[in-house]
Give the backbone structure.
Amino acid sequence: MRIVLLGAPGAGKGTQCKKIIAEYGLEHLSSGDILRQQRAAGTELGKKAQSYMDSGALVPDDVIVGMMVDAITKISDGGFVLDGFPRTVNQARELDKALKAAGNKIDVVINLEVDDDAIARRITGRRSCPKCGAVYHVENMKPLVEGKCDNDGVDLVQRPDDTLEVVKNRLKNYHEQTAPVVGYYRENNTVSDIDANGNPDAVNESVLGMLKAFSVSQNE
Ligand code: AP5
């Protein structure tokens, strides 16, 4: 399956991706994670992306499209979940073009819907492990020991773009530039809207139920 997971910043895309890949054995391709890896490695691409990410702006399409198409091409069996990409209609068109050239297409588009108020609380309360990447929340998904990663005991950190001020900009950019991507997919694919205001397990039940129904329909 080739899945696109859409949703506002902090809607729970990364959280749900981990559960989808555990169930279906797909590759998880997060544009944000790849950009953060590039920044940590000090690459030219990472340096170009830095100021955009820190202010909550989108990194230009010409940087993102090549990076993501390259990552998709490296997947041998072709099954993946895209998290954070595409984020503009132009990125979605370029993705479709690249997949078509390889004889492929997006099979499932999932749109996580969350109220903006909940988004701000989710993002400002997020903490992550700099070593293994595990994600927590100070209220909703607490680690066993406050401030420490359950997997390796490392001190949890807050992403620099997870402040309230930057979140406002990320949400503004989402509504202006990314929400139209949902419309793009509605014209060409079936989009499954999921109410993602509930707790992570409830959202996961809806997502996996939808994917199971899709798999069954493909095998009929
Ligand atoms: P990116 O890293 O993609 O950030 P994002 O889309 O803003 O998404 P997040 O990672 O913040 O949130 P998420 O939806 O994965 O939520 P999570 O599961 O962690 O992008 C960062 C930056 O990179 C962008 O601003 C841009 O500059 C650049 N960029 C990336 N891709 C780009 C592209 N394609 N084009 C241009 N620029 C690009 O959950 C959030 C928190 O909520 C966690 O603490 C979690 O524990 C908690 N939580 C999750 N689900 C629930 C729930 N159901 N109930 C309660 N709490 C929950």
